[in-house]
């Protein structure tokens, strides 16, 4: 089955509503599952507990300042086997395919393309499905891990005629040497990348992205929400700040509230188009496990003058 067929399949299984708790093990996942007061209280207590004993200041400094080193080791260890291909791009961000269809249907013979820029692309979990289904696209993508970019470039689907993957640190002050032109990008994609960046650098990173967007262009964002299972699972002495943790492998994970994401992007001059909390209950039927995930998904647009 090709990626595109699989994208369509993902779309069809949305809206799985859990009306009868006794049937919870009948599906692999349920959408928009509300937490009861007891669950909310338990989550707050877990976070209070795991953040009460913080990481030492020295270790925190190392992890915050040398994030690149830890991601480089991550990709050398896992290659491209860790992050699943993002096969849901079509259903969550249909705007990209719609822009592609408009170009195809216009019969325009010119070289015009939908310009996409993925930030923190890793080894290509988003770029590869994108290249497969958005035929009239040109995709820029960057990551500060040289190993990740090398893996992506080694894939047979990687075609330099329609994709430019480059090594760059999103927290750099100057982006003048990046291959992307200001005001040239239709869609910026940022999936689970901002959470890997230390909070004081987030506004500067977003300012870079705004600069590259065309007026009318959009940023698509998806990342961890506060009280996601991943946050609750941290142990004491892994917390490097409020809602900020260091994983065993040295990589950072920040857990956002919807309001924080709103403020970060609207303060950069963008208009909020979507800000949703995706409360998903994932069911592991083999192991009888229920996992409550919290992801934030947003769309922001750059106003036209
Ligand atoms: C959690 S992974 C997500 C990868 C991919 N976006 C996905 O959703 O599968 C975070 C990615 O952000 C990259 N990253 C973290 N901080 C970065 C920075 N300052 N500049 C560029 N890339 C960064 C990491 O190397 C890693 O590939």
From TrEMBL:
Keywords: Methyltransferase, Transferase. CDD domains: AdoMet_MTases (cd02440). SUPFAM superfamilies: S-adenosyl-L-methionine-dependent methyltransferases (SSF53335). Its EC number is 2.1.1.-. One of its GO terms (molecular function) is tRNA (cytidine-3-)-methyltransferase activity. InterPro entries: Methyltransf_12, METTL2/6/8-like, SAM-dependent_MTases_sf. Residues 118-218 form the Methyltransferase type domain. GO terms for biological process: methylation. Belongs to the methyltransferase superfamily. METL family. S-adenosyl-L-methionine-dependent methyltransferase. This is tRNA N(3)-methylcytidine methyltransferase.
